[in-house]
Design goal:
Blueprint: H1 6-20, E1 24-25, H2 34-50, E2 71-77, E3 82-86, H3 92-95, E4 100-111, E5 116-127, H4 135-146, H5 151-160, H6 167-179, E6 188-190, E7 194-198, H7 200-205, E8 212-217
Parallel strand pairs: 2-4
Antiparallel strand pairs: 1-5, 3-7, 4-5, 5-8, 6-7
Helix pairs in contact: 4-5, 5-6
Length: 219
């Protein structure tokens, strides 16, 4: 079997999304827990891949689903397209999570007659790691830099946005930003003990921005 790569991952995600949207699943009937739906879809997609490609599965140590490809899989409902991910450093809000995302956005419907549920996959989106930073934070920093902003301006902005970092760390980030400006991110990342990732903008711009690829869209 060939080794899984980004191109084949996206190709299989397209085929899987199309097929899953027509599949009636009895085990999900009446299930309202998004985590249970996410676990079901993740396991099923990995099983789909296992019959076709060689790849190493993620574990709690690596923290992401496809460590060899540096890609994490996220499953979310269209009613509130968001999920959480581990917080490592405040830099992630500016320079991205450090890995790419493959996001499946579904709409669940139950059939009371057949006692089955269908997950209609509305969007499947691949976000490259360079674009996984916070939209407003990166937009603000890039605007300051475009207006000849200096380290003080960047530092003030970082502190105003209440990034979870102490002043010494914020100083280091401000220095880094001047030497290495970030790329525009497209996630909305809320501060919490875990990052809360929101995907509304990613859904809006998929296929229109570099690094935000529309793998599948329901017709």
């Amino acid at each position: 079997m060939p080794n899984l790569n980004i191109k084949s991952l996206c190709k299989e995600a397209f085929e899987f999304s199309k097929a899953e949207s027509k599949h009636a699943e009895s085990s999900l009937y009446g299930v309202t827990d998004g985590k249970a739906v996410g676990t079901y879809l993740e396991h099923k997609f990995k099983t789909h891949l296992k019959g076709r490609y060689k790849f190493s599965e993620g574990n709690s140590a690596s923290g992401i689903d496809f460590p060899q490809l540096n890609v994490d899989m996220k499953v979310t409902s269209i009613t509130q397209p968001q999920s959480s991910c581990p917080f490592k450093t405040a830099r992630q809000k500016i320079y991205g999570l450090g890995y790419s995302l493959l996001i499946f956005v579904y709409q669940k419907s139950d059939n009371s007659k057949n006692k089955t549920a269908t997950l209609n996959i509305l969007h499947t989106i691949f976000v490259s790691q360079e674009q996984t930073a916070d939209f407003q934070t990166t937009a603000g920093i890039l605007k300051i830099l475009a207006n000849n902003g200096n380290k003080d301006d960047i530092l003030a902005f970082i502190l105003e946005r209440n990034l979870p970092v102490e002043e010494i760390g914020a100083n280091k980030i401000a220095e880094e930003v001047l030497k290495n400006p970030p790329q525009q991110g497209f996630l909305t990342i809320s501060n919490a003990l875990q990052w809360r990732l929101q995907y509304g903008r990613v859904i809006e711009v998929a296929g229109q921005e570099d690094g935000v690829i529309s793998v599948y869209r329901a017709s």
